Amino acid sequence: QVQLVETGGELVQAGDSLRLSCTASGRTFSRYAMGWFRQAPGKEREFVAAIKWSTGSAIYTDSVKGRATISRDNTKNTVYLQMNSLKHEDTAVYYCTIGFSRLPTTLDEVDYWGQGIQVTVAS
To answer: Of 41, 71, 77, 81, which one's alpha carbon is 20 to 30 angstroms from that of 24?
Structure first.
């Protein structure tokens, strides 16, 4: 079993920056990658970013490219999502994810989900 706990969500103003954190515990030693999805009200859950744990190589959805940076701290078993120049359309519940065999970029590539954390960007 794997537990993922997200922190850092809050209400911010458009243009602000925010850093989300997700700490993993449990059977994480064989993980391949971690990442983030989000789900806005009335919309489907969508991929945001993912990072290969061994190399740190990352991939982003187009809507956050240039504004988001995903990173990881091996010593803390934590993945981060730094988001800058936040927009109202970034408002969503953000979910931490882990993939044991692939980069979790689609729903069926995710092996475990965090409980989700709210990010609200006021326009």
So the answer is: 41
